[in-house]
Fold this protein.
Amino acid sequence: MLKEAISQTQLGEWQQEINDISAEFRLTITFNQIDVTAHRLQAICISQSAKERTCQQHQISLLHYIGTLNDNAEVNQSSTGVYHQLIRDEQGLLMAGLSFSAVNDDLDKPELFAPLSAIQIRIADMLSSAIRVYLSSIDLGGQPNVNVTHDVDLQAFIDAFDEHIWIKNLDGFYIACNKSVERAWRKSKEQIVGKNDHDLFDMRTAEAFIQGDELAINTGSPVVVSECEEVDANYNKVWLETIKAPVKDDQGQLTGVIGMTRNIAEHKEAQEQLILAANVFQNAVEGVVITDKEGNITDINQAFTDITGYSRDEVLGRNPNILSSGRHPKSFFERLWNTLLVQGKWHGEIWNRRKHGAIFPQAITISAVFDKQNIIQYYVAVFADISVQKQNEEKLKNLAYFDPLTQLPNRMQFMSLVEQELNHSNRAKKQLAILFLDIDFFKHINDSLGHVIGDEILVELAKRLSYALSDFDVLARLSGDEFVVMLPGIMSTDSVTSSVDRIRSVFERPFILDNSQSVRLTASMGVAIYPSDGDDHDSLLRNADAAMHRAKLDGRNNYAFYTESMTRQAVEQLKLQTALHHALANDDFYLVYQPKLTLKDLSPCGFEALIRWHDPILGDISPAAFIPLAEKIGLIWDIGLWVLKTACLQGVEWLTQGKTFERISVNVASLQLQRNDFVDKVRQILLETGLPTKHLELEVTESCMMHNPEAMIHDLKLLGAMGIALSIDDFGTGYSSLNYLKRLPIDKLKIDQSFVGDIPHDVNNTAIAKAVIALGHALNLQIIAEGVETEEQADFLRRNGCDLAQGYLYSRPRLPDALTEFLPLVNARE
């Protein structure tokens, strides 16, 4: 059998893939084995969220679809809205069928399924192709599949079903029925076949059955014609549902009607229980939300809408993280889920966000609902808005822990927060920094302008400092003109100096007084790091204060680290930062070019422009060192434009010399794309240099999509419309979103060298490389691999369909004069 021939591992992977695709694209998917010898369809994989009734409709539609096949064409989209893909063996015999339909939450409507969208059909075809390739590679052990024809033993097939199944011709006479019909109607097949409804039933029943036939014929697809409560042969009450569908021949001509009746008592019982549950929680004062085991919302009550502002239609099928405020770290939710999974219940307080953006606190209890096998089926969360309670608590807290002038934490509150963070940093083995800030000569402000003006300046300064710091940093006012900042979870001195630079920028703008007079201020700052400069809040604050006084001694308007070693590091960073400012003006940058080759015949197809920096004092500096710094201090825009213009000028020079190349690719940083005038600048540089757009390619990274993706897509489409080629650099190493990828006007995907390096020895990297190549080709994109250094890597990439490559195997990045072998002359190329 086909199902037994497939490995359990592969079945598990398919099931997970089908579940993911179903949830992402709102599809119901069934994968059935077509076992003609046994006269039945056997389910192999089914969408986890698929309803039993939908699966039954898939099987009926698949059976009808197979019966209407001819040698001329196969119309995959059936009249019922179900989309089928058949899988055949090497002899062309049917083995299995994949059926797809759009999710329908209201199965009581006559029109069961809407036609699939273009993207849904594309996804269905891709999944079918993947399964078809796998099945073609396994040994089915002589599986006795035969081709489905019109002379299939229909009687044996319908007898295999417990449901009542019968078929009528156009004149209303029964031409077939299964054994379930014989038992239910207490008549033999001979007593039923050849008779019409008036022969078998009373006038009222017969007319109802005939009207059902007409409804199915007029609708042209399967419809539910009745649903009623009956008594079975054992005198038990049952709910019966009757579905009818038109039957057509090979030419699409109507030949009769097929009907099926099944017991839906369990469905009715579940429906009644849901109605009862809905009536209970709809009137609750607390908000109630129910999710499935995957965490997707299945129901809410009115109180949920009143508290959050989200209506039922806006949240159904979505994850509750749409309410996330961003105030809780990842570890908070990890502990929450661990408690919920182990104990089955979690109670606590969470800050969430309402629809209009307001953040609010809620007391919440989350419970897991288990089935008879003790497997989680649902989660139920009951919560109450405790905003008023929190506001009252905050008022009391402000009186004791906050500075009345600036509303910042006072010394007592700051020390308490530092102590808490020190405990966390000690457990997590992390560093934190204390930054002590004192305004230079602030006493002159109070003496000359008065304490009222001085207080106004302190309030304005507190606001500016708060805006300059991140949400995780803690700003406090200790006394007078002394402020202190706690920077938790620092990774290196770079992050500290970056925060210091942001604070220093606060003083660049003058402070405007009520009489339009402006005052300029400076500040001296000292930094102490935990644990190297102290292991408690007193020693850290004392050492930061000492470092601040040293900064004052060094001339004020400065900062200093408590330890000499860190001060030296900060000085080195400052030297590099200063040199970077002068590099553009001093022409210290230059470009090298690395060739790109077609893997098939190793013919050159372009170059990637790479920036290099030689400083007269510091020497050669790696791009890995100065590019992140340029982004941090805001120089990446000017550097990026210089690279683009220089590369374009080089391309024009090559063309003038009669040399040919396809395109020069230039890397574009995320911060460049975020500028509103980036497209205009590219257009201006092309006009100034005269490089045809067909010779330019821009490489962007996946991280570009993290900031305002819609604007990014718009700008990239404008660039593509100009004739500029676009590629995704370092694909797979950052923010991978197929939803955005499919909308981008890109031409190439570049496999990052971190995946190429261990090919073909690393199984994971080879799998990722194959997946990227397959994905790119499915989207009609060229695939280029960077960092190719060995023939083994090149052979692997070539065998798996990679189009282009670059790397040390072919050439290191070179100066323009050293690239002659990769730049054929026009006549030579012709």
Notes: The longest strand covers residues 237-248.
